Amino acid sequence: MVPVYIDRVSYVDGSSLKDLPLASLIGNPNMLRRMSRLIRMGVAAGLMCLDGLSPDEVDAIVTATSLGGLEDTGKFLEEISSRNESSLNPTPFMRSTFNTVGAQIALLKGIRAYNVTYVHRGLSLESALTDAMLQIAEGRRNVLAGAFDEITPESHAVKERLGFSRKGWTDSEGAGFMLLCSEPSESTLAELCGLRTWRGTMDADGAGDAVRSFLGEHGLGMSDVTFFSPETAGCSWTGSAGRICGAAGAVGDAGTGYVAVYSCSTGMYHSAVLLRRP
Q: What is the annotated signal peptide range for this record (predicted)?
């Protein structure tokens, strides 16, 4: 793979959203008023990564989500039931589509470039990162990549019924974005060296063997890397976005010069990302 550098990262969750200057960040009060909480989180995180860049400097926007706008989806389904499928308000439906965040970022910044959204359950973010890396390999300079998901009372209830809490997972939400570049700069945080995904049930030993194999492909062993393990890791299917953003910021402090991130969603979707000091 060609060198891919993480130049900037931003992460926004429900608790930090209220502290952001959304009016000045988004700049369009009418658009801001119509945005759901998820769209605000995703658009804010994406725009922070693009701060100072002109539209011509952004060659692609690649986003990911596992479930999309659940709040707007719920509003639309409720209207279908209460209005007997007639005289429906189309706005919640339009805002519930998976590509809304990527489209809103492009509209606000005036970006006319490749724009796609991946919806691959627990490997959605990893699919977006793979595409972003391919875009860099094909000659693009700057690619915005990120993921977003939210919690609603309905989704939380469904996860409870699926037994997520019994498995020790806590519900989580948020939006994490990265600006990937083809060349390093003074602000570069890390080099993205490798990415691997697996699907299927694996116990701790199986996951360890998979990660060891992944590192071995890069000439590294388990002792050659620092594993980034945040204190809280919720069961959002795109939670790996936040972990990778945090790991990119920690590469400079890693004594080994390498940081690895292993993520597992719902016990079925596994990924490993390798970062190194630029």
A: none
In sequence order, which residues have a C-beta less than 8 Å from that of residue 101 and are 6 or more positions away? Answer: 38, 39, 42, 43, 46, 63, 65, 117, 148, 175
Q: What one-character-per-residue DSSP string does the chain give?
A: ----EEEEEEEE-HHHHTTS-HHHHH--HHHHHH--HHHHHHHHHHHHHTTT--GGG--EEEEE-SS--HHHHHHHHHHHHHTTTSS--HHHHHHHSTTHHHHHHHHHHT--SEEEEE--GGGHHHHHHHHHHHHHHTT-SEEEEEEEE---HHHHHHHHHTTTGGGT-----EEEEEEEESS--TT--EEEEEEEEEES---HHHHHHHHHHHHHTTT--GGGSEEP--S-----TTTHHHHHHHHHHHGGG-TTSEEEEEEEETTTEEEEEEEE--
Q: How many other CB atoms sit within 10 Å of the CB of residue 195?
A: 18
pLDDT, position 235 = 61
Q: Are residues 169 and 235 in contact, defined by beta-carbon separation less than 8 angstroms?
A: yes
Give whole-number Cα distances, 70 to 67, 88, 122, 148, in Å: 7, 18, 16, 11
The tokens describing 143, both together, are: 């690619």
Characterise 101 by phi-psi region: left (phi > 0), alpha (psi -120 to 50), beta (else): alpha
Q: At residue 142, does pLDDT exceed 80?
A: yes
- 212-236 tens-digit pLDDT: 999 999 999 999 999 997 655 456 7
Pairing relationship of beta strands 174-181 and 190-199 according to DSSP bridges: unpaired
